[in-house]
Amino acid sequence: MKRSSLKIRNGKVAVVGLGNVGLLVARLCASRGYKTKGLDNKRSIVDEVNTTKIENLRATLKPSEALVDANIAVVCVPTTIDKKNRPDLEALKNALLQVSNFMRRGTLVIVESTVPIGAIKEIALPILERSGLRCGADFYLAYCPERVDIGSKNWPLRKIPRVLGTIDPISAKKATQFYASILDSEIVKLGSIKTVELAKLLENSFRELNIAFINELSWVTPRMGASLNEAIKGASTKPFGFMPFFPGPGVGGDCIPTSTLFLLHGLSRAGGSSGLLSLSRSINTRSTLRVIKLVEESMDELGKSPESSVITLLGLSYKESVRDTTGSPALVICDELVRKGYRVKLFDPHVKELSTTKSLEDSVMGSDCVVLTIQRKEFQKLNADYLQRMKVKSIVDCRRQLDGQSLVTRGLIYKSIE
Ligand SMILES: NC(=O)c1ccc[n+]([C@@H]2O[C@H](COP(=O)([O-])OP(=O)(O)OC[C@H]3O[C@@H](n4cnc5c(N)ncnc54)[C@H](O)[C@@H]3O)[C@@H](O)[C@H]2O)c1
User: Fold this and answer.
1) Less packed terminus of the chain by CB within 10 Å, N or C?
2) Which residues of the chain register pLDDT less than 70?
3) Which residues pair with 397 in a beta bridge?
4) Going by CATH, does the domain composed of 287-416 fall within 3.40.30.10?
5) pTM
6) CATH code of the domain made up of 10-191
């Protein structure tokens, strides 16, 4: 069927929250011919979108302007955890209240934010029904968690299959029609909203568990005389039943830790727990602190105290394909090194606002220890010749980006996360 025949007639979309997810959703809707308005409470984001001049897309700070004409509202605001590791859904509640204030008969509301199990029915639905309208009769509600892999070229938003859940069949039909009109992928309706909530949390906590397993192995395998990285590559040649995860300096971003803690919260509400998942969270946190241990070992070998040492952290975002520094292991490592008395220089060509030096050369020149937290093509020039020229004394390579053997041969101290 041609997509133009799938487009909801007179469909006008409001996307609430124009961050990593919402902006991509808004752009996609606009590119599919929907008159789209994006609502965000940050002026800088609204100005940036409007300056870019994207056909069919306008951004605004005013809920009335975004929502008054809309018959499809897609909510993409942040959901997170508080200091006590409990779900913090304040942004979601506020966004839904705004939608509820302007909702009219026939509006389709879709939540794409990640939520704890039970949140759509227990929290979102009552807020929307404050409008006086009833779900399934006057307005429609679906939960369709976002799966975008920011920065990935292989998986643009439109190609990623989606799961969705609704309370009533008309909402399911309308939401499926909407997604069919913007995506080139499968849309799978699951039996209940809670099952969709669980599916999203499973996807992310699966990664938490597997990363923790590999990180924990990496603490021991160097003592076994085996290469974990090579073993993972070897195991990956099995065409079924194995998926590669590589060791690193811990897990950053909001998605994985938040989903893990949402799932643990849900299990605890149901009178259960998952020791395995809790342990995985703590192993991944400890993996970040292990990088500091490697720096300290290097400085001990050089006979240098923290106060007399200069450490350079290269790579500040939480993964290579993004600029986002939310929960980035590099920032945790920086705070801890500073707390211990080290002088720390920061550099990331893609995160200029947090870099304390202007160039790679400035950041590494004379450094006692260069810590590479993520892979970046700009860091590939850090070979033995370059590092010797820059008078660098030691390297901690968290992603095994460099040829360690050649550095050791030239007298540099080289430590890596196996
Ligand atoms: N980033 C990812 O890769 C990713 C992937 C899948 C799912 N998710 C989930 O999607 C949701 C959004 O994530 P994100 O990374 O886009 O967050 P983000 O922090 O990048 O963006 C959220 C935006 O919402 C705005 N906002 C907050 N409250 C608002 C309100 N009441 N009205 C209007 N705007 C408001 C903020 O100003 C911000 O610009 C989260 O639940 C996240 O877990 C994120």
Assistant:
1) N
2) 1-5
3) 372, 416
4) no
5) 0.94
6) 3.40.50.720
